[in-house]
Design goal:
Elements: E1 28-36, H1 54-58, E2 60-62, E3 68-79, E4 89-94, E5 99-107, E6 118-119, E7 135-137, E8 147-153, H2 156-162, E9 166-176, E10 181-190, E11 196-206, E12 211-221
Parallel strand pairs: 1-6, 4-12
Antiparallel strand pairs: 1-3, 2-3, 5-10, 7-8, 8-11, 9-10, 11-12
Pfam family, one: Ig_CFAP47
GO biological process, one term: sperm axoneme assembly
Protein name: CFA47 protein
């Protein structure tokens, strides 16, 4: 859609509303273009040269007298549909023990016709930015069925507590093209060193655009009793002493 005739005073702000209503789990691309010109019809002066910035030249309208008649600002918009939050996944382990658990994640709406990115300008695929702890899944799938996944934490404190205790690895993928359901099976390792109850979110993104979030809860229960210390009394009002060794697990 186009909006014209908007008057903007010097240093005044212009809010441009953008509404996103996806119909499929794929990425949608568009571009917001703002065209500015002087109200009195005058032009801006600018000297063009062979070394002028190409991006700048692409975003200006040159008048016959060599001045600038209009200026464009281009704002690319990427719309990524995100599914409603999925059911809670609970991983439970006794402190100072190690549990290895298979977790199944169902991704709804991965339909074959979403293999191309909907673009208001072109049909080129978008290269997303991958964070350092994001892993790319490509084995056995075509390029349009690649997934990125990462474990997100609510705070840096929770990250510091869980990051070294939790490991996740994708071991199996199945894609039912008729129903549009992708099944991802993860191997989750949880090795807590003390009792705790923390939460994290597994975020999975399809490179064609859709994203799913799975809340996860990691519960470490109390440890077993290490040993029973028996102290035998030698008499009333007399001290009895027993010795035992404590071994540190770290330096």
């Amino acid at each position: 859609f186009h909006l014209t005739g908007i008057h903007l005073a010097p240093k005044e702000k212009l809010n441009i509303p953008v509404l996103f209503m996806p119909h499929a789990m794929k990425m949608y691309k568009a571009e917001v273009v703002v065209h500015v010109r002087k109200e009195n019809g005058d032009n801006w002066t600018y000297e063009f040269s062979a070394g002028s910035n190409k991006d700048l030249n692409r975003n200006i309208f040159v008048a016959q007298n060599g001045g600038i008649e209009g200026i464009l600002w281009r704002y690319p918009v990427h719309g990524i549909p995100e599914a409603p939050q999925q059911k809670l996944v609970v991983v439970r382990c006794q402190a100072r023990q190690r549990v290895e658990q298979r977790v199944e994640m169902l991704l709804m709406g991965v339909v074959p016709d979403a293999t191309a990115v909907t673009d208001a300008r072109s049909s080129d695929m978008v290269n997303g930015d991958n964070s350092a702890n994001t892993q790319e899944v490509t084995d056995g799938f075509s390029a349009t069925a690649e997934f990125l996944y990462e474990l997100q934490y609510q705070s840096t404190e929770i990250r510091s507590q869980l990051e070294s205790l939790v490991g996740m690895h994708l071991v199996q993928k199945e894609w039912d093209t008729e129903s549009g359901i992708v099944t991802l099976i993860f191997n989750v390792v949880f090795a807590p060193n003390k009792p705790m109850r923390n939460e994290a979110t597994l975020r999975i993104q399809w490179t064609a655009g859709g994203a799913w979030k799975f809340p996860m809860q990691f519960i470490a229960t109390e440890t077993e009793v290490d040993d029973v210390i028996n102290i035998e009394a030698v008499g009333l009002n007399k001290e009895s002493v027993v010795g035992f060794n404590l071994t540190s697990q770290t330096r």
